[in-house]
Amino acid sequence: xxxxxLTPKRFELLSEMVPETRAMxxxxxxxxxxxxLMIQDAQRAARAKGVRLHIVxxxxxxxFDAAFASLLPLQVGALVxxxxxxxxxxxxxxxxxxxxxxxxxxxxWREFVTAGGLISYGPxxxxxxxxxxxxxxxxxxxxxxxxxxxxxxxxFELVINLETAKALGLTIPQSILARADEVIE
Length: 185
Description:
By secondary structure, the protein is of the alpha/beta class. The protein has ten helices and seven strands.
């Protein structure tokens, strides 16, 4: 799963944006069968960055408030949202909670950033949709699905919301801005 492999990069980016933080959290859905693997990846990435990692769970929308409220007593300086379809479907709620709790957060999809989130790093949905269209075209033109190669995303996007950064009192390092595919002002 390519998105799991991006976890260390997300920790690296967040560490660059909030270098003074000594503790980060990762929000995971305990109902996701892959959450244990994502937690292992996150623990390795946090150790590599020299930060403590707290795992915060929310498997239902009613658990989000408590999960975000737990970040302050843990002295968490930044949050990584794990890759989870449930979280994707609750994008606006999660972005609003991160803003209300003034927690810098990184997400998988650019849509979180366009909704007001701070930063995202993940596969390009536009490119993935384009690839899917090519596959559909091949199948409609007679190709057998079993004969088509499995493809993984090859285009990844780094998107930053400067307005959110300003609201959080963050100055985005020039090194990150230079790598950004899109900067929302």
